Amino acid sequence: MSITLEHVSHTYGAGSPFEKKALNDTSVEIHAGEFVGIIGHTGSGKSTFVQLLNGLVQPTEGTVYVDGTDISQKSDAAMAARHKVGMVFQYPEYQLFEETIAKDIAFGPRNFGLSDADVEERVREAMEFVGLDYKTYADRSPFRLSGGQMRRVAIAGVIAIHPDYLILDEPSAGLDPIGRREIFAEIQRWHKEKGITVILVSHNMEDIAQMADRLLVLSHGDIVLDGKPLDIFSTQQEALHQAGVSVPPVTGVLQYLQQQGLPITDRVHTADEGANVIYQWIRGLDHAH
Ligand code: ADP
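Above: inputs. Below: predicted complex with adenosine-5'-diphosphate.
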């Protein structure tokens, strides 16, 4: 099971004076069960790439397969394959349209022909997932919410369709730090317990280092790096710099200390782990004296 791109290119406005090639002849396979982080400078092609994965953007050349099915076809099989891929957009307010939160979240499951009881069960589960109390919020309008709450509703609407592949394009914008942590914890739990594949576009390198087991770095419409996040952050500083992205702040601190001659690792997943590396080094000094 996988999402596979075979020689996929996408050009916006082909043939017009504004023609822009956003993705160049890209071949990559995202395996079921992976947690893939996608980073790159603004305009590097991240949004185009993820929208190709569920057919929102069509390849100008090449083919996108979801579990072996070419999703550009008009067949039922292609539609079913596209429905396996759920996408939370960068701007969730554009994703909401029903008069109540519950109806909004129910839209996907209802479209799949589930019974009323099953739809309600999905809505409750999805609201719990994103930390919205059912009683308080079910009948409210989604348009009177704060940006962070709108984002929760948009994520719930995608969770409610139980996607096999969950794409999140900068999902944490507008969320407060606690809300962010809660939602990411839930996403990680579903990733681990249900084995869903997660594809996360983020500017937050620490989120990537902490959660992703694979990292794709985009630059000018090409995947320029593909590997384990800590390997890339530890050994590919020059290539990252050229792509206009940086290592997580904590990795930067540890690399600076390495340059000052400290014999420490820069391979950490979180700021806490980084602090511990420095703490252990200081303790080592104490013991040496
Ligand atoms: P990112 O998500 O990394 O910021 P995008 O995929 O949004 O990158 O954009 C890649 C390139 O394609 C950019 O140069 C952008 O200006 C261009 N682009 C994106 N969307 C459109 C569009 N709808 N029409 C024309 N050009 C676009």
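The first helix runs from residue 46 to 52.
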